Amino acid sequence: MNTAVVVGAGPNGLAAAVTLAAAGMTVTVLEAAPTIGGGTRSGEAIVPGLLHDDCSAIHPMAVGSAFLTGLDLERYGLSWRWPEIDCVHPLDDGSAGVLHRSVEQTAAGLGRDGARWRALFDGPSASYDTLAQDITRPLLHIPAHPLTLARFGVPTVLPASALARVFRTEAARALFGGVAAHAFRPLHLPLTSAIGLGILTAGHRHGWAVAAGGSQAITAALAAKLADLGGTIETGVRVDSADQLPPADITMFDLAPTAVADILGDRLPSRISRALARFRYGPGAFKVDFAVDGPVPWTHPAAARAGTVHLGGDYAEIAATERAVNAGQMPQRPFVLVGQQYLADPARSVGDVHPLWSYAHVPHGYTGDATEAIIAQIERFAPGFRDRIVGYRTRSTTEMSCYNANYVGGDILTGAKDIRQLVFGPRVTLRPYALGTPGRYLCSAATPPGPGAHGMCGANAAEVALAALRARR
Hints:
Layout (H helix, E strand, L loop, with lengths): L2 E5 L3 H12 L3 E6 L10 E3 L6 E3 L12 H4 L10 E2 L3 E6 L5 E4 L3 H6 L5 H13 L1 H8 L10 H11 L3 H5 L5 H11 L12 H14 L3 E2 L4 H13 L3 E4 L14 E4 L3 H8 L5 H8 L6 E10 L12 E6 L3 H12 L9 E4 L13 E10 L8 H11 L7 E7 L1 H7 L15 H6 L15 E3 L13 H17 L1
Parallel strand pairs: 1-2, 1-10, 2-9, 6-12, 10-16
Antiparallel strand pairs: 3-4, 5-8, 6-7, 11-14, 11-15, 12-13, 13-14
Helix pairs in contact: 1-10, 1-17, 4-9, 8-9, 8-13, 11-12
């Protein structure tokens, strides 16, 4: 029987392991941390019983993932919950962009921009499951559905700033800009519309869901599925060199590219080793988890019903803060994302004390403390919030990279999503998962289709590895 080793038990490592085990391979997963899950871990903090997601929290790309939905993970305890409203972007004048799962309902709230929102998202969201067959693969491939992909793809090449000018109201521009800012890139650059359009289209099809019981439920379900297929997971096993790797027909790395270069060293072709070592990382995330007594006193009532709230002011302000953090400057008012997962999953709370998830975009490797800036941004749109804080826990960019070594400098996307890395992955190639040596592959979020708990990077890489193994027989 063929054997496989997967280094790293994040969602992509587990996805690769499940795919390989389902093909009949004997699979061992090696995880350096004492617990599996990478960014999809959850745990109690601040108040006993209060459940916080450690990083990945809201899952518009995972809930409809073709890989996850094909595994019947409900059998292993995974279930999804949806907030009443997906996302709200409040503005200083008291108005807000309000994102519903329904395109029509979202458009109805955007006034004179409603028709433009419908024109942009109606068709792609209705055909998202077909579209996903192409956009969850490497960008450079022969498309399965070329016309559907072309209709979606043309706007994605635009800078977010150019696409934002399609809208005439500040609410619509800010709503789009806040989602586009998930790319952690200056919004005037080409292709910065891509991630925002992808998240919005997926969300209009499947909603901005959370996993009941925390994002750890995704990890637990994948691990249980792997165990049923005969795979094993070993925690507390750090791999620092190729000599530590057991012999295997296939070895997958759910690691940052620079870590793979360090482990494999001269066992890689020199051009590939150099490319991985030069891999670029982007801005960081400074995370603060709050325990809050009662609901957040948002000024805009829709924010009190939203699973996600984006705090960044109008579009011009968002664009300015993203330029600043990419230039290594800490803005006074950073872009802040707030997660209210407990609205969809009330069991995360303890009585009237609720877990509030937040992080700010900060420069790569930022060594300062952004806690006060995050609190101030929430206070800006929820006066009185400070008085409701029971306690909080912070994770700086350094602590984020200790929590998950793939988050170099606090970069939770596992790499800057600039044009080259967004199109090709870690190196310029049509084979982004291959490492140039037989049987060895990269499957982390540094590879297409990129970050998220969807598992598609791992599943895609494992399918490539299995095809190459069959060809060698």
